[in-house]
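Sample intake sheet
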Amino acid sequence: MSKVAIRINSADIVAVALQPLTKGTTVTLEAMDNVPEVTVTLQEDITAGHKFALRDIKKDEPIIKYGYPIGAAKEEIKTGFHVHTHNIHTLLSEKFEYSYNEANAKKAYDDWYKETESLRKNVPTVKVYKRPDGRVGSRNEIWIVPLVGCVNKISETLANWANGKFLGGEPSPKEDGGLEGVFTWTHPYGCSQMGGDKETTAVILSDLVKHPNAGGVLVVSLGCEENNIPYFKQFLGEYDENRVKFMTTQDFQNELEEGKKLLTELVDYVSKFKREEAPLSEVVLGMKCGGSDGMSGITANALIGRICDAMTGMGGKVMLTEVPEMFGAEQMLMNRCVDKNRFDSTVKLINGFKDYYARHNQVCYENPSPGNKAGGITTLEDKSLGCVQKGGKAPVTGVLKYGERLTEKGLTLLEGPGNDIVSTTDMTAAGANIILFSTGRGTPLGAPVPTVKIATNHPLAEKKSGWIDFDAARLLDEPSDSVRDALLKQICDIVSGRLQTKNEQNGYREIAIFKDGVTL
């Protein structure tokens, strides 16, 4: 690695250490955008991912990183000193006025369109499962969906039996086609819920039933729960009886034998599907970060942003969620809304989540986590500005409420919290075939769909090779286009069944549903 530190934007008054730096080290930041080269002698040890001052900073002066404020100085900070939680405070508040400039939005669109022109002419092809509703699946699995937590263990028992009987206990994707695995999405909900929570559970589970990665689905009910089959079918709507089977366990003397019978029917149905060639733009991409550090916005999220630009440039569908981790960076996204209606929807998205915090008597800026801070992230603005790098330069073409399914081409903002399991479930329910998940601290978490773990730094990629699929710190050593293309190829291999993600290899898949109400 030739660079030891980086100034991300020419307007920045802090730089980020790319490796551990000791007190007394002299660091030179190269000239950029007509801003001259600057040389700084460090006055303290600086941990990788952490910031140091490029000039003297006055008390209460905004701290600029990514070209935007990440907070303000609590005290005077001299050149070369560590800039972090001990000397910065947030500038966020519950209410903020947003503005939309149509001319600036059009320029942002034109710039993105020009930059992605070559990608539109060279769209890669993948081999996927084409579904009757026009969507595609990156996997051809049977999903068992419990309607209530009481039948979780029954569902797990059935999934284990089916994988053992039909796949020798080793579910995996296949390049040609056929059954690739049987999985169940256990959860503790479906009963003792009131109002919105009860409905939300039914909505998310119906989204999973409809998901194109599931060639067949077994819906398992207890029978006396609030989210019973007749209630659930109101949210599910029309369905193919060959693809979706229902079982109420209280109706059968031996529910396991009935479940095995229904699964055998589904295996016969699902096994007939074969992979077919389609453009990569038919695949729906979700983007997520978790266990972030000070390198996230520089490497992994920036790389995902380049994938976002590529996918949207090809005419694909991409979604970005984690609304609380847009706070402090939301205007960047609003500036790229393709019209005033999308801007207004984005404002409602942001303010709606702030109101959610207020209803629970919580401040909207109680973030980042201890792990984030240890990795160099100081304030929520700092975290958010790094988080939204995943959106690249793509125009915002859609805004979805929690539980809605993605239909718009381009970049869509999806309502949802920052919590890793809830947000990956949210994107899966919205229709993501694959999720790019950046991490600086490391996490083994996986969604129901292939979840590509992208490390922000070399040490994490090396230490946790059993979790990590791609090392984005290559951006510091290699041309950015070649790193982007390498990740695009890996995405194509995963989607086409030629490669498993680490979460698939490990069997790490789970769901969680957003809850905002009373438990009886």
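Comment: The radius of gyration is 24 Å. The first strand starts at residue 5 and ends at 6.
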